[in-house]
């Protein structure tokens, strides 16, 4: 299997990922063993060849999973071009509502207003679970004072209150240095989730650097011992040699604590939403979505997330089959 944990961080977050026919013959030959390792047992039979184009957009948190699936799929179905943008959960839903995409990746459930807009646009959709994530709070490895923060500490740090935030505000034994903040952009589902469970809809600290590109956040935190930020667990796993994860309420985000829910309130599911009409009318869309659901668990584990129980993937495949 390709070492996705370390390869994905530098590769996934361009303005779009276009992987398909350009995967070509060389990619098919080179990745034949990779496909065997990353595909689930349910995908044992060789797929019939299909042609076409499939488009998606959405969450940068979901991107490591979907990018890996798209690249492997290119070896399986070289005549299908799959294009996946990473404009954030909110940005992805905007394109989905406009009918520009066949599926939309999300690191939070769809909002009521987004669902209403899709209904108004006449777009019926189905929600598919892909994996579990533990939103990870990280600092530079040069930070030798922060090991654990409570939810209350996080709120005190991250909520805008007109003050200059210093580490000593949390613990007087910590440096009297200004905290430097990095966070996902406001179109990100990760921002929405943090806003809901930590900020509780209060304004985020005004000095924070916001970016839809999680690699920008990673690089900023790596370079500054006074920096703190948050993003999906896979980005921590891919950069754990240069970042330090912070325990929340005494619990470290790990595969075990994320799957069990012990790492709360920052454990969450990851989704993709697909247009029913595209699934039922376009064989390429159906084939890609089937491949994605058959392989999401293995790819989630490969890139650093946590796979769902097998029955969840079976339910997703049954829901997909019902739309065919």
TrEMBL record:
<dbReference type="InterPro" id="IPR011862">
    <property type="entry name" value="Phos-bd"/>
</dbReference>
<dbReference type="GO" id="GO:0005886">
    <property type="term" value="C:plasma membrane"/>
</dbReference>
<dbReference type="GO" id="GO:0006817">
    <property type="term" value="P:phosphate ion transport"/>
</dbReference>
<feature type="domain" description="PBP">
    <location>
        <begin position="44"/>
        <end position="293"/>
    </location>
</feature>
<dbReference type="Pfam" id="PF12849">
    <property type="entry name" value="PBP_like_2"/>
</dbReference>
<keyword id="KW-0449">Lipoprotein</keyword>
<dbReference type="InterPro" id="IPR050811">
    <property type="entry name" value="Phosphate_ABC_transporter"/>
</dbReference>
<keyword id="KW-0592">Phosphate transport</keyword>
<comment type="function">
    <text>Part of the ABC transporter complex PstSACB involved in phosphate import.</text>
</comment>
<keyword id="KW-0564">Palmitate</keyword>
<comment type="subunit">
    <text>The complex is composed of two ATP-binding proteins (PstB), two transmembrane proteins (PstC and PstA) and a solute-binding protein (PstS).</text>
</comment>
<keyword id="KW-0472">Membrane</keyword>
<keyword id="KW-0732">Signal</keyword>
<comment type="function">
    <text>Involved in the system for phosphate transport across the cytoplasmic membrane.</text>
</comment>
<comment type="similarity">
    <text>Belongs to the PstS family.</text>
</comment>
<feature type="compositionally biased region" description="Acidic residues">
    <location>
        <begin position="33"/>
        <end position="49"/>
    </location>
</feature>
<dbReference type="GO" id="GO:0042301">
    <property type="term" value="F:phosphate ion binding"/>
</dbReference>
<dbReference type="InterPro" id="IPR024370">
    <property type="entry name" value="PBP_domain"/>
</dbReference>
<keyword id="KW-1003">Cell membrane</keyword>
<feature type="region of interest" description="Disordered">
    <location>
        <begin position="24"/>
        <end position="61"/>
    </location>
</feature>
<keyword id="KW-0813">Transport</keyword>
<feature type="signal peptide">
    <location>
        <begin position="1"/>
        <end position="21"/>
    </location>
</feature>
<protein>
    <recommendedName>
        <fullName>Phosphate-binding protein</fullName>
    </recommendedName>
</protein>
């Amino acid at each position: 299997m390709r070492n996705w944990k370390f390869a994905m961080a530098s590769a996934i977050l361009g303005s779009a990922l276009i992987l398909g026919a350009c995967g070509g013959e060389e990619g098919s030959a080179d990745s034949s063993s990779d496909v065997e390792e990353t595909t689930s047992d349910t995908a044992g039979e060789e797929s019939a060849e299909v042609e076409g184009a499939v488009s998606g957009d959405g969450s940068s948190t979901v991107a490591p999973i979907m990018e890996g699936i798209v690249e492997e799929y290119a070896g399986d179905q070289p005549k299908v071009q799959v294009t996946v943008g990473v404009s954030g959960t909110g940005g992805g839903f905007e394109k989905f509502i406009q009918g520009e995409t066949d599926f939309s990746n999300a690191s939070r459930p769809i909002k009521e207003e987004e669902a209403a807009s899709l209904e108004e646009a006449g777009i019926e959709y189905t929600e598919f679970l892909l994996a579990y994530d533990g939103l990870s709070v990280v600092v530079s490895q040069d930070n030798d004072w922060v090991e654990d923060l409570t939810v209350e500490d996080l709120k005190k740090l991250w909520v805008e209150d007109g003050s200059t935030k210093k580490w000593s505000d949390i613990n007087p034994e910590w440096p009297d240095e200004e905290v430097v903040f990095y966070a996902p952009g406001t179109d990100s589902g990760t921002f929405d989730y943090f806003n809901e469970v930590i900020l509780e809809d209060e304004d985020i600290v005004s000095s924070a650097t916001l970016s839809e590109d999680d690699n920008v956040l990673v690089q900023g935190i790596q370079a500054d011992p006074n920096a703190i930020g948050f993003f999906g667990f896979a980005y921590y796993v891919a950069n754990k040699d240069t970042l330090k994860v912070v325990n929340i309420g005494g619990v470290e985000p790990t595969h075990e604590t994320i799957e069990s829910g012990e790492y709360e309130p920052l454990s969450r599911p990851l989704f993709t939403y697909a247009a029913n009409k595209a699934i039922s009318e376009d064989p390429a869309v159906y084939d890609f979505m089937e491949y994605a659901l058959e392989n999401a668990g293995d790819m989630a584990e490969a890139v650093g997330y946590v796979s769902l129980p097998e029955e969840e993937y079976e339910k997703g495949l049954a829901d997909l089959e019902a739309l065919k």
